[in-house]
Structure formats: structure tokens, C-alpha cells
Design goal:
Layout lengths: L3 E3 L5 E3 H29 L8 H12 L20 H13 L3 H25 L4 H16 L9 H17 L4 H17 L5 H14 L1 H9 L2 H6 L3
Antiparallel strand pairs: 1-2
Helix pairs in contact: 1-4, 1-5, 2-3, 4-5, 4-6, 6-7, 6-8, 8-9
Length: about 230
């Protein structure tokens, strides 16, 4: 019978269950390889890209009590990204030293937070567990390679971008969830400017697919004026 395996004792085993266990075993193998790769990446004391060391300079400026954006500190402390990632790294750098492993560990934390967020929202959507884990593993693999896992603000920006989209979706696009999305979007902007795109996607979605009233909630939020006046 299609989709059924029969053993010697006449017991029937659904093919779907076998495929699920095989898939889980393969995902476990990939997860092990990802963990080994990430551990080796974190513990490497040397830069893994040309400009990775520049990120440490901004954190060092904070540790030394300097303003990394002051004109007197240019071009040595030039940083085209926001300050929020460095503020998050700051207490860890103060405790364990300003190093690549410290920065990459913070990046790793946000990578796993992004994967956890993806897993959570798909569980809420009642996506089958195997598909949920597979999608989360694909996201993990995507975030681990190239530059996101390095001493850079990318992983934190991605997490906040996802949060600005996922929270309203989970809460039915209520006013409070839209306000929370705005906060996440502004924080994402302070990490890496183009991560505010999450708010753009959200605005277009509620405007086109939900209702203009919900979209106007994003525009009515009073702190927008304060943000616009920020020097």
C-alpha cells in the first residue's frame, strides 16, 4: 500500500514517520556542524574580514569615555552604523575585555534569538514540527555564514527587524502591537539604518491588505515628531 512500509511481523510503519525521523537526524547532523563552526568562529582571536577590527574601535571609544562620532575622533573612529550594538556589547567588553570573541558572542546571541523568534511564530501558526525545525535550520545556516556572525551589528539589526514584523502579526495588528513595532523599528535603525525597512514592509502591508485606519496608527504615533527632530 502506497505510503506504508510493512516489516516481517506484519506491523505497518507510515512512510511519513520514517521520512520525518530521517529528516530530524539530518537536521541534528547539520546543527552539530553549525555549532562547531560557530564555536570556532567565536574563539578565533583574529579578524575574519578587512573591516571587522573597526567595530572594536567604537566599543573601545566608549570604554575610554570618548564620543566615537565627535569630529576630533575622525577618521580614526569612523563608523557608518548606529551606536546601539556597541552599547549592548559595552558591559560585556567591560567585564571580559574588548575582543573579537566578545563581540561575536553577542552577535551569536542575536542569531539564536532570531531563530527562536522564527520557531515561536511558526509554532503559533501550527506549522508541522519537522517543517518548523527545517525552516529554522535554514535561517540559522543563512545567518551563520558570510558576515552576520562576525563582530558586526548585522545580527542585532536582523533580530529587531524580524521583531518589528512578527509582533504585529502575532497580535492581530492591534494599536499596541503597532506601537511596539515602531519602537523595534527605531531601535533597528539605531543598530543599522536600513534595518528600519521592517517598518516600511509593515506599513505597506497594513495599508494595502489590512485597512488605512491601521496604517494611520503608525503615522499618528506622537514620538515620530521627536525622532524627526533628533539632530
Amino acid at each position: 500500500m502506497l505510503g506504508i512500509l510493512t516489516d516481517r511481523e506484519g506491523l505497518t510503519i507510515p512512510r511519513g514517520k520514517i521520512l520525518s525521523w530521517v529528516t530530524l537526524a539530518l537536521m541534528g547532523l547539520f546543527l552539530y556542524q553549525f555549532l562547531v563552526f560557530q564555536w570556532e568562529l567565536i574563539r578565533n582571536p583574529f579578524p575574519n574580514e578587512y573591516r571587522e577590527g573597526a567595530i572594536l574601535l567604537t566599543t573601545q571609544a566608549l570604554l575610554d569615555g570618548k564620543n566615537p562620532y565627535a569630529l576630533v575622533n575622525q577618521p580614526e573612529y569612523t563608523n557608518v552604523y548606529g551606536i546601539l550594538y556597541h552599547l549592548v556589547v559595552y558591559p560585556f567588553a567591560r567585564l571580559f575585555g574588548n575582543s573579537f570573541p566578545v563581540h561575536r558572542s553577542v552577535s551569536a546571541g542575536f542569531i539564536w534569538a532570531s531563530c527562536g523568534l522564527m520557531f515561536w511564530i511558526m509554532r503559533w501558526m501550527r506549522i508541522p514540527l519537522v517543517l518548523n525545525l527545517g525552516t529554522t535550520m535554514i535561517l540559522l545556516g543563512h545567518l551563520l555564514f558570510y558576515i552576520t556572525a562576525l563582530a558586526r551589528p548585522d545580527s542585532m539589526g536582523v533580530f529587531l527587524l524580524l521583531l518589528s514584523v512578527v509582533v504585529p502579526f502575532r497580535c492581530g495588528y492591534s494599536d499596541r502591537s503597532l506601537y511596539a513595532a515602531i519602537v523595534c523599528g527605531i531601535l533597528a535603525f539605531l543598530v543599522k539604518p536600513y534595518c528600519i525597512l521592517g517598518l516600511t514592509f509593515l506599513l505597506l502591508y497594513v495599508l494595502v491588505w489590512r485597512s488605512p485606519g491601521e496604517a494611520s496608527t503608525l503615522g499618528r504615533w506622537r514620538p515620530w515628531g521627536w525622532v524627526a527632530r533628533w539632530p
